[in-house]
UniProtKB/TrEMBL annotation:
Binds 1 Mg(2+) ion per subunit. This is Shikimate kinase. Monomer. It comes from the Bacteria. Mg(2+) binds at S14. Pfam families: SKI. Its cofactor is Mg(2+). It comes from [Muricauda] lutisoli. Keywords: Amino-acid biosynthesis, Aromatic amino acid biosynthesis, ATP-binding, Cytoplasm, Kinase, Magnesium, Metal-binding, Nucleotide-binding, Transferase. It catalyses: shikimate + ATP = 3-phosphoshikimate + ADP + H(+). The gene is aroK. It is found in: Cytoplasm. Its main location: cytoplasm. Its EC number is 2.7.1.71. ATP binds at A10, S11, G12, K13, S14, T15, R119.
Length: 170
């Protein structure tokens, strides 16, 4: 069984994915961590040294590699993964369950403003400009996330409860 979590930056994909995999007793792969291990560099360094297009090509290649594994997996994608090239089509074809962790702009803003440093796309956006940036960016990305098989409203829901809700969907 393959379960793929998608959603905007800081929607909880990594946190929830790790917990879910532990409870289901299957392997967890965080695509961002997988890319970092493959490149032996942080995402932040990959962006600054090689640029975003290099990262997106690598992300596509690594997504294919991970989805091709012959084992049950929970895969947490990066915030942009479903929104580039054919990635969302591949996810829909290969995953038994794709799940969008849906969070409102104010809740995303609240989380992202506390953790901007390791997120290259927002680290140079001022606090004043951040709400407008997230609103516009989410507007562009949401059509991809919304293609997931399940849409899960995660507002006001702690990570353990999100995991329980996912288990009910499976
Ligand atoms: N359900 C939740 N309720 C409250 N806080 C949460 C919840 N899930 C995750 N968090 C917190 O939100 C922050 C972002 O979570 P996380 O890193 O899992 O997001 P992500 O979707 O993997 O982000 P990215 O796309 O940047 O990898 C972390 O500080 C995490 O502890
Ligand atoms: O939203 C995005 O485009 C990104 C989110 C992170 O998970 C990383 O994949 C990277 O920082 C890009
Ligand atoms: Mg993550």
């Amino acid at each position: 069984m393959k379960i793929v979590l998608v959603g905007y930056m800081a929607s909880g994909k990594s946190t929830v994915g790790r917990l879910l995999a532990r409870q289901l007793g299957i392997r967890f792969i965080d695509l961002d961590d997988y890319i970092e291990e493959h490149q032996k560099k942080s995402i932040k360094t990959i962006f600054s040294e090689k640029g975003e297009i290099f990262f997106r090509k690598l992300e596509h290649q690594m997504l294919n590699e991970v989805l091709g594994k012959e084992e049950s997996l929970v895969i947490s994608t990066g915030g942009g993964t479903p929104c580039y090239g054919t990635n969302m089509t591949i996810i829909l074809d290969e995953a038994d369950h794709s799940i969008y962790l849906d969070l409102s702009i104010p809740n995303l803003l609240d989380r992202i403003s506390k953790e901007k440093e390791n997120r290259p796309l927002v680290k140079n956006i001022s606090d004043k400009e951040l709400p407008e940036f997230i609103g516009k960016h989410l507007f562009e990305r949401r059509p991809y996330y919304m293609q997931a098989k399940h849409i899960l409203d995660c507002n006001g829901t702690d990570a353990e409860t999100v995991v329980e809700k996912i288990k009910e969907l499976l």
